[in-house]
Design a protein that fits this description.
The chain has 289 residues and is an alpha/beta fold. It is globular. The chain contains 10 helices and 8 strands.
């Protein structure tokens, strides 16, 4: 099955770049030409880049590592959250806080604080506080949830990050490079593809294009998870091949032809019924003599 088709790329408007005057010359190798003052991206190169990125993400996920989805622009927020949750990964879709990767130990403290407030809300601690204190804690929780809700369960640094618009998420890309984390990113004609491990040339402004790219990466993670699940099932199947006599014995066998059927065993209840009926039988010849 193809990872993506040319038709879906065209329908999503992936080939539309920015205005010619706003281009980054380092993107020249990915540009097919220009039309009406707008650069057109070479979709043949986009498809090749998508396949390479898909395979890389699948391998990372198969190794048991997580993938962090990053997209804080308005067009990307909903798609990033939806697809990350669909494949069970982490995401940042409101604001990239400086140090999310390079200073993760401090971010962990904020995550612990968020979980503590949530616990206080559930276990009845709020009932013993004043309204002002409760309002302050709820406000703090909302702020933390907004910025860190997508990485609440992230225990360690991700195995890779997927970025929409490297121009806007320059800090996230810089932190990932510094920590040696592979970067998979959608790069438009105004972006710099250098320093990106797996650049995907394409439109990073259209909602449909963003949704398509994000769903492809999510599919790669899900495929890796499915492969792991199949391996577990196969291993269980190998263990089940060793059968005992009890496993082979079939007590309930469905019978299609009842003409020659003879019951193998008679239940105790049936035996008792037969004895009662035999004792109640009367000889008719003796009765009418």
């Amino acid at each position: 099955m193809a990872v993506v088709t040319m038709k879906s790329l065209l329908e999503s408007g992936v080939h539309f770049g920015h205005q010619v005057k706003r281009w980054d010359p380092r993107m020249a190798k990915y540009i097919f030409g220009s039309r009406n003052g707008i650069h057109i991206i070479d979709l043949q190169k986009t498809i090749a880049a998508i396949k390479e990125s898909y395979e890389a993400v699948r391998k990372i996920a198969a190794d048991g590592k997580s993938v962090l989805f990053v997209g804080t622009k308005k067009q990307a927020q909903q798609a990033i959250q939806k697809e990350a949750e669909r494949c069970g990964q982490f995401y940042v879709n409101n604001r990239w806080l400086g140090g999310m990767l390079t200073n993760f130990s401090t971010i962990k403290k904020s995550l612990q604080r968020l979980k503590k407030i949530e616990k206080m809300e559930v276990d009845g601690t709020f009932d013993n506080l004043t309204k002002k204190e409760v309002a302050g804690l709820q406000k703090e929780k909302a702020k933390l949830e907004k910025n860190l809700g997508g990485i609440k369960e992230m225990k360690e640094l991700p195995g890779a990050i997927f970025v929409i618009d490297t121009h806007k998420e320059a800090i996230a890309v810089a932190e990932a490079r510094r920590m040696g984390i592979p970067v998979v990113a959608v790069v438009d004609t105004n972006s710099n593809p250098e320093g990106i491990d797996y650049p995907i040339p394409g439109n990073d402004d259209a909602i449909r294009a963003i949704t398509l790219f994000t769903s492809i990466i999510a599919n790669a993670v899900m495929e890796a998870n499915n492969e792991e699940g199949l391996k577990i099932i196969e291993n269980l199947g190998d263990e089940d091949d060793v059968q005992t006599d009890a496993a082979v014995k079939r007590e309930d066998v469905e019978i299609d032809d009842y003409s020659n059927y003879q019951p193998t065993e008679t239940k105790d209840e049936d035996k008792a019924d037969e004895e009662d009926s035999a004792s109640q039988m009367v000889d008719e010849d003796k009765l009418y003599k």
